[in-house]
Specification:
By secondary structure, this protein is an alpha+beta fold. The chain has one domain: Transcriptional coactivator/pterin dehydratase (Gyrase A, domain 2). It contains 3 helices and 4 strands. Strand 3 and strand 4 form a beta hairpin. Belongs to the pterin-4-alpha-carbinolamine dehydratase family.
């Protein structure tokens, strides 16, 4: 069963979901996460995120500087965050756990 959210209820729903994603920060209509990963972990994470993002038809931005991986989800052009983008962030967290636990 799919539940439709609109207006304020949708905003509250997404805000509640975002509070469950530790390590993510919200900047306007985007959410970001910075991780300290080695090159192998970064490569594995990027591949896993690509698979999930393709399935959701979303394009997160993933960048690498020194030993830090930064992930950004959202449009940043005034478009609000969607349920799919919050879902992608949750799936990214699953991928982070998978690549850092081994």
């Amino acid at each position: 069963m799919r539940v439709l959210f609109n207006g304020r209820a949708k905003h509250d729903y997404l805000s509640d979901a975002l509070t469950l994603l530790t390590g993510w920060t919200r900047e306007g209509e985007q959410i970001r996460r910075t991780l300290v990963l080695d090159d192998t972990q970064h490569a594995a994470l990027t591949e896993r995120v690509k698979v999930v993002a393709d399935a959701l038809r979303l394009r997160p931005q993933i960048s690498r500087r020194a030993n830090r991986t930064q992930i950004q989800v959202g449009h940043g052009d005034g478009e609000p965050l969607t349920e799919g983008e919050v879902l992608l962030a949750a799936r990214i967290e699953d991928a982070v756990r998978a690549v850092t636990s081994s």
